[in-house]
Amino acid sequence: MSTVQVPPTRMNLTVYKAKRVAAKKGFDLLKKKADALKMRFQAMLREIQKTKMTMSQDAADAFFSLSQAQYAAGDFRHKVIESVTTAEFRLENRIDNVAGVKLPVFTDVETAREKSENIGLSGGGGKIQNCRDKFRHLLKALVKLASLQTSFVTLDEALKVTNRRVNALDNVTIPRIDKVIDYISRELDELEREDFVRIKKVQANKIQAAKELALETEAQAAAEVASGVPVFTASDLDILAAFEPAADADVVF
After folding, report:
1. Is 244 exposed, middle or buried (0-12, 13-18, 19+ CB in 10 A)?
2. 10-73 helix and 125-168 helix, angle to the nearest 10 degrees
3. Cα distances (angstroms) measured from residue 7 to each of 12, 100, 195
């Protein structure tokens, strides 16, 4: 018997069949969503791995170029700090929608570069420019990695929630609804069998009563014939006797 006590009526059977259809439709939609999120999750994981592998080499090249620039031009950090007034590298945040899951994505926006030709005039200008380009490339890779990892965490949590819902529908909700439908169907079948047996019993009782009445009538007729008393049937009676004035009640005006 089902763990959910539901009155076994045809109305409830129709309601639970509709619930089963809705649950299966929801299961199919969530399954497709989980598959889409899983594909994006795997692609993002490969992209993160690839970015980390290239980023290690980019970081090594950037810091090696910094060492070369410092060797060629000396310590130029204070000159760079003094020449910078506004940020040349900015970030923009946008939302990427993947199967209803909003993933944050960071994109870099470059503004107009400030002129800094006075840095490295005494020597090492080319090395400083090369160092600037290397670190700019490293910064872009760092922004890309931060965007991927932030989206990865959000996507991982959404994938876990979706998988839990899929498993709950597949292993709990739909089997429970099926048990309720099976319980109601069995109870309705049992009620139909009981009604059928009851009707057959009533019909058998009526047939038996009719047979007994016929036998009793035949026995009474045979007894009257044997005693010599005339037997009157319904066709021999005066059908107008019931309409005689004597049969009516007195009417007082």
Report:
1. exposed
2. 170
3. 7, 38, 18
Chain length of the chain: 253
Start-end of H helices in the chain: 10-73, 77-83, 125-168, 174-227
Interatomic CA distance for residues 218 and 191, integer angstroms = 41
Q: CA-CA distance, 26 to 20, in Å (whole number)?
A: 10
Residue 43, amino acid: A
- Listing DSSP states for 136-161 in one string gives HHHHHHHHHHHHHHHHHHHHHHHHHH
Helix (H, G, I), strand (E, B) or coil at 93: strand
Is pLDDT of 147 > 70? yes
d(CA 13, CA 37) in angstroms, rounded, equals 36
- pLDDT, tens only, 25-74: 999 999 999 998 899 889 889 998 888 888 888 888 888 888 887 777 67
Tokens 């609804």: give the residue. 177
- Three-class SS of residue 230? coil
Interval 170-217: pLDDT, tens: 999 999 999 999 999 988 888 888 888 888 888 888 888 888 888 888
In order of their start, the domains of the chain are 10-85+117-170 (1.10.287)
Q: Using the structure block, give the residue that is written with the tokens 């592998």.
A: 53
